[in-house]
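Hello support,

Our group uses your service weekly, and this is the first time we've seen a run hang past the timeout. The protein is Helix-turn-helix transcriptional regulator. I'm not sure whether the cause is the sequence or the server load. Input pasted verbatim:
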Amino acid sequence: MRPVKAAPNPAPSKETAAGKEPLWRDVVGDVLRRERLAQERTLKDVADAARISMPYLSELERGRKEASSEVLAAAARALGLGLPDLLSLAQTRLAGLPRARPARASYQGEVRLAA
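Update from on-call engineer: The timeout came from a worker crash unrelated to the input. Re-ran successfully.
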């Protein structure tokens, strides 16, 4: 059974609005949290089902920890998702964020926009 979708995406964070690329762990953590909240489940419930600690799941959701594929798969399963589902949701979320400004590169004394 597919979980109910959470509320629409919030306004871009200060980092994305300022032109910084979002970190993958932030995007994946946001997807985990949205899916958990859409199911009206607690951190403890999902952490127990995933067999990971509640503080660790909290840090994953906040983008403070870079999880292994095994941990991400366990968290996804605990939410009724497969790892491909979780990654697809994260990719969709990432694609919907504003793009960062391209970096500037110096080429033989000239300043050009990077491709």
